[in-house]
Each structure stands twice: as structure tokens, then as C-alpha cells.
Amino acid sequence: MATPKSQEVITCDLCVKPTQQFCNNCQLSLCVDCVSKHVDKFKYQPHDIVHFKDRKIQLVFPECEFHTNQRCEAHCQQCDVPVCLKCKFGPGAHNGHTVKDMTEIFNDKKKKLEKETKEIESTIIPQCKKKIEETESKISIIMAEFDELDKEKEKHRKSWHQEVETIFNNLSSLMKSIKENLLAVLNSHKSKTNNQIPDMTQTVEQNKETLKSNSVSAVTNYKSKLEEYRNMPTDIDIKLPSLKTNTVQGRELSLELGEYKASLTQTTLSSLTEEVSYLSLQKLLKQAKSITTIPTGVNPLFHVACVGVDEAWVSGQNKTIRRVDIHGSVRDTVTTTCYFWPIDITVTRQGELVYSDTTVNIVRHGRTETLITTPQDWHPDKLCCTKSGDILVSMCTIDFSQRKIVRYQGHTVKQEIDRDEDGEPVYQGGEYSLSVVENNNGDICASDLNADTVVVVDKSGRVRFRYDGTPARRKKSFNPIHIVTDSMSQIIAADISNACLHILDQNGLFLRCVDNCGLDNPHGLSVDSEGRLWVGLHHSGEVKVIQYVK
After folding, report:
1. Burial of residue 49 (number of CB atoms within 10 Å: 0-12, 13-18, 19+)
2. Is the model's pLDDT at 274 over the cut of 50?
3. pLDDT in tens, 316-349
4. Considering the entire predicted model, what is its pTM?
């Protein structure tokens, strides 16, 4: 038969037997068998053992560390430690110091603890939950708005001639990029806020247990987390783009999405290409601006791979890869399995670090896994993680006589770019690495330093164009050490000999050089989610963050 709740047996604090006795000094419930065990264990302390019904609820003061059989009923204000009467009046470090009654300290701190716990539970946690709901609402709005944008885009697509398919593909890529960036920011905001709740909930539970306790130490040792909890992540201001269209049949078709604009008139395809290039040029700042210079502590600096907005992985001539923020603080480190140092680094769409050595490796949950093993006699070199999840790997033979780019889908080879339509090598053999990146339209762009050219091939591997730096009219020959593309499909190549960056449109038309930001020996190159360039400087080990578009 179940025992009624009012008749529940109170058990001994030292075993599971019913309690019969109580130690007033130690505030412990005891069975008959455990009384002698308790007294023997603490035989140098006084014990007022009474029948359980005659117990007295009182504070349990901490034992003195220096005087046997003494409890600390006061607190030394100068030393900020509990003291007993012998500490206070006897010879020693606390004689003559100002002391405060421990009961007063206990009561004051318990009131503060109760107040903080109430604020966390009744105010801060509900505020966090409300912010999460607001963020989820914003995410829903974005999803719905982009669904409507997509429907509207498809409706207008039908009225355009097939020759402008490229414009819509670019529009789709831009919308996807904006959407992913907005959702990434909001989901990150949601995650940061959500991650605080379990810790705050745990703190509330711990505080409640402490409030129930009569232990002076448990209360006086409490460390407040209130200020930390009050500093919640700042609200995110979301600005949604709108699709603007104009249709005059037989004369002009146009659309705009944010800063992207495209139009079709009764003209030739070459004129349309010039219009797209003109729009790209209009978005470039007349003078690029160096926002900040980040000291990385990596010297020489070889590689930079941005992670989100204000962080990037950097590596150089050692086995360690560092994750630094825009202020130069090291946020994380990875010790690689490289024989010497990473040949290249990149980041997947999910934010996982990938690096190449004798194999291509990925870092997951702090552990390194082999992702790709290249064919015999071929070594992996530079890397690029594509939007589709594939990985482009440039590789070379042992004697550096041949170079090619291979697309991997998981462990499977999906494409090889090696020879052109005439059977000639697309890329020149030599000792210098072949940097590779995928553009928004699917083109594969490479900086071929052995041939001093930028080589761009389409999705099928057919050569679209080569850029040799001549239009930039630099003093020295063009030496493209690294290459990236941006959200506008512009191609940016780091020219190590001329200490500048060459900016081209997606069709290879030279737009501008960035040469005013102190880019001494530019090496690593990456673009963050806000469209800023992160340029690694080889000799100084610094990273320049550059704003180059409006």
C-alpha cells in the first residue's frame, strides 16, 4: 500500500534508514547507527545530538582552517575570509582587523541572491524567449518574401528572350546569396540568444537550491552572472530587397534587385555585355578604402579564408592554422597533420575548415578527417569549396610538369579540366601553384602564375578567355598569385609583383586596379559575407580589410 505523502519517512543524511536523531551543530539528520559514525568522523567538533522532534534549525558556520573545533562566525573585512574568535582575538594575521558578523553577511547576500534569481527568471528569460519569437517571425517573413520574389522573377522571365538567360541566372545567384546571408545572420542571432537560456535556467535552479540551503559557504561563495545575462545580443535590422520591373514591348525590358540592374533593348548582344560591365564599374568605389589592418602573428603569411563577417582562418609556414577576428584576437587554433605546413585552406558552406597537404582534409568537431586522396603521382594544391558542395582541387605532378583542376563530389571525381579542344594543356606546368575559384555563373577561374595569366573556363571546361594584365598598364609584368570572385561575379586577382589587385568583370573586361591600400606583397585573398576583401600580406603577416564597392 502506498504511503500517504504526509507520512513520508525522512531518511538519514548518511544512509537510507529512517532518521531518529539530529545534530544541531552540523544540521544533519541521523539514524541510530550513524550517530557514532558522525561523531567519530568529526570528533574534534562539538555535537549537540537530540531527538529529531527536538531539533533546532540554525545556520551552519564553516569550520576554521587554522583552529580545531572552532567555527567561523565572523568575516574579516580586510582579508575577505571567514574567521573564528581565536583568529580575531588571538595572536595572528587577523588580530585588530575589522570583522563583520557572518549572519549579517549571510542575510545580505541571500537577499541579493533572491533578487537576482527573481530578475533572471521573471524578466531576462522571458525577454530572451520573446526575442527568439521575433527572430523566427523575421525568418518567416524573409522566406515568404523571397518566395514571392521568386514567383515574380519567373513571371517576368517568360517575357524575355533566351539570349538574356545569363541575366536571370545572375539574378538568382544574387537573391540566393542575399537570402543566405540574411538567414545566416538571423539564425546566428537566434542561436546565440537560445544558447543562453539553458545556462540561465541552470543558474536559476542552482540559485533556488542555494536559497533553500542553510550553508553559509554556499551563499557567500555565490558568483553573480547577472551582468553577463543582461548583455543580450543586439537586435538585427533586416532590410529586404524589392524587385522593380519596367516593360515597354519592342523597346526595353528592365529589372532591378537592390543594386543589381539589368535591361534589354533592341540592340546587339555585345552592347548588353558592355552595359553589364558599365553597371559593375558604377558599383566600384573610385578609391578603395582600407578599413583596418589585422596583425595575425603568422609570418610569413600564405593563406586567408573568411568565416562569416568578422573572422578568418589564416596560415603560414607552420602546422598551425589560426582563426582570428577583425580586432586581431585569436578565436581558435587547429594543429594540422601536415608534413610541413598547409598548402592551402578554404571553408565549406557549413563553415568547416578544409586544408590540403599530401591529402585534402576537413576539420570536424576538432578532429581532422581525410576527405580526398588524389591519384598516384599527383599532389593536391589549391582548393575551392563550391556553392553546390563540390570541392575544386588544383593538382600537379611530382615534377611540376603538368597541372590540372579536378572537381570532386565527395570522394568521386566529377570533372577534370586538363586539355582544351585542340588537345593543348589549359594550364602551364611549373613550380608555382594554380589558385582556383568558382564564379556565380559556374565559370572556373584560375590564376596561372606559371603563365602569368588568369584563365577562365566555363562549366564544361571550355576556355572562355585569358587575361594577361596588359589593360592595367602596370610597370612590372603581371604575376597573379591568388584569385577570388565576389557577389557581383567580378574576378579579383592579387598581383604580387605590382602590389595591387586587378578587378575584372565576369567576361574578362578589366575594370580597375586597387593599388592605394598599402598592399605590399599581397598573397592570401578572401571575401567576407559583407563583400569586403581580406588581403593577406606575405612579409608582414598582416591582413588588410578593404572596402572596394559601394
Report:
1. middle
2. no
3. 998 999 999 998 889 899 999 888 899 999 998 8
4. 0.53
312 vs 322: CA distance, rounded Å:
8
522 and 481 in contact (C-beta within 8 Å)? yes
Using the structure block, give the residue that is written with the C-alpha cell 538567414: 183
- Looking at per-residue pLDDT, the higher value among 272 and 119 belongs to 119
Which region, left, alpha or beta, applies to residue 314 given φ > 0 means left and ψ of -120 to 50 means alpha? beta
Cell output for 517: 591600400
Please state the φ and ψ torsions of residue 145, each to the nearest 5 degrees.
-60, -40
Closest CA to 404 of 376, 378, 373: 378
Residue 162: DSSP 8-state: G
Instruction: List the chain domain ranges.
Output: 8-100, 111-235, 278-285+296-549
Nine-digit cell at 208?
533556488
What average pLDDT does range 10-19 have in this prediction? 90
Using CA atoms, how far residue 155 sits from 174, 246, 342, in Å, is 18, 13, 48
294 or 218: which carries more pLDDT confidence?
294
The sign one gets for the Cα dihedral 449, 450, 454, 455 is negative
Separation of alpha carbons 29 and 534, rounded Å: 66
Q: pLDDT tens digits for 489-534?
A: 899 999 999 999 999 988 888 888 988 888 888 988 999 888 889 9
- Pair 42, 69: CB distance under 8 Å: no
Strands (E), 183-340: 243-248, 252-257, 260-265, 284-295, 301-307, 311-316, 320-325, 330-335
Q: Are 420 and 426 in contact (CB under 8 A)?
A: yes
Q: What is the pLDDT of residues 211-255, one digit of tens each?
A: 888 888 888 888 888 888 887 777 777 777 777 776 554 456 677
Ranking 178-192, 364-378, 464-478, 524-538 by mean pLDDT, the lowest is 178-192
Whether residue 380 contacts residue 356, with contact meaning beta carbons closer than 8 Å, is answered with yes
Q: How far is CA 163 from the centre of its chain?
A: 40
**The amino acid at 393:** V
Ramachandran quadrant class, 239 (left: phi over 0; alpha: psi -120 to 50; beta: rest): beta
DSSP 38-94: HHHHTTTS---EEEGGG-----BPPBPSSSTT-B--EEETTTTEEE-HHHHHSSSTT
Cα–Cα distance, 315 to 301 (Å, whole number): 6
Q: What fold characterizes domain 278-285+296-549? A: Neuraminidase (2.120.10)
C-alpha 25/C-alpha 460 separation (Å) is: 85
Residue type, 166: T
Q: Per residue in 358-391, pLDDT tens?
A: 999 999 888 899 999 998 889 999 999 998 889 9
Give, in order, the Cα–Cα distances in Å from 500 to each of 38, 217, 479: 79, 64, 10
Q: What b/e string do you get for 320-345 counting C-beta neighbours within 10 Å, with b at 16 or more?
A: ebbbbebeeeeeeebebebeebbbbb
Q: Are 179 and 23 in contact (CB under 8 A)?
A: no
